[in-house]
């Protein structure tokens, strides 16, 4: 492992940014080809002394909020943010997501309950929002927008990092507030995987996540209505209930119900047509064509 790779990366990116790119004058007496430390520190909202310690490897434990602010100030691409996150982990910064134990899988009876809720969308999530199980109704809703990508899929990571998230949720700001609040609540209760994910998102998603996480002072809404803009359903309004499941794990069953008649019709029609892919009576196949 290269010693002080984190500091070297920060310095290289700082020196690669022309002052004009961030609205600063390019004076004739600049000794650095890019931004001065004082300029980057000012953009990121940290002290020059602290940035110096990071670049020189004297401090190798920056918080996710600090690294996220630096990533924003440096204008890092999504790929560079992921690389920066890995550098922080490799050099001992914060909790390691890989070391967090995976959540236990839902009991067979809980999985059976999900199936009994068909055709209504339903899923089971853990404290950090990993999707542990879902029924066909939820997969019809979530797969076309990319929400079930990842191993495991994660609700907060989708909202803050997936390119489809803002189009999927017209009320993205409210949904994002709820996801950040859920992560903070779980982290404060000692769930290390939630704290690790929060640090990851502070870096990868930057201030969009960091400021919500830092200022969240309430619990997430465990019931309400979500508006989805879906490529197959159209715009639908889904009432949801998030119910804690008995057991030592922090598992919740989230069930969605149509919040209006138009949504009920859209979900019923899509569920019926989904059966056309399997052997079905001729009348059903004709109705879906």
Low-confidence segments, given as residue ranges, are 93-100, 280-287
* Arithmetic mean pLDDT: 86
Shape: elongated
- Please give the largest β-sheet: 5 strands, antiparallel
| Alpha-carbon Rg, integer | 23 Å
Structure description:
The protein is of the alpha+beta class and 289 residues long. Helices cover 48% and strands 12% of the residues. It contains 14 helices and five strands. It has helices at residues 5-15, 37-44, 48-55, 64-74, 78-90, 108-116, 136-142, 155-161, 165-168, 172-188, 192-204, 207-215, 261-274, 282-288; strands at residues 122-125, 131-134, 223-230, 234-244, 252-258. A five-stranded antiparallel beta sheet has the order 2-1-5-4-3. A hairpin with a 7-residue loop joins β4 and β5 (252-258). α2 packs across α3 and α2 (37-44) packs across α4 (64-74). The longest helix is centred in the middle third of the chain and has 17 residues, at 172-188. The termini are far apart. The model is unreliable at 93-100 and 280-287 (pLDDT under 50).
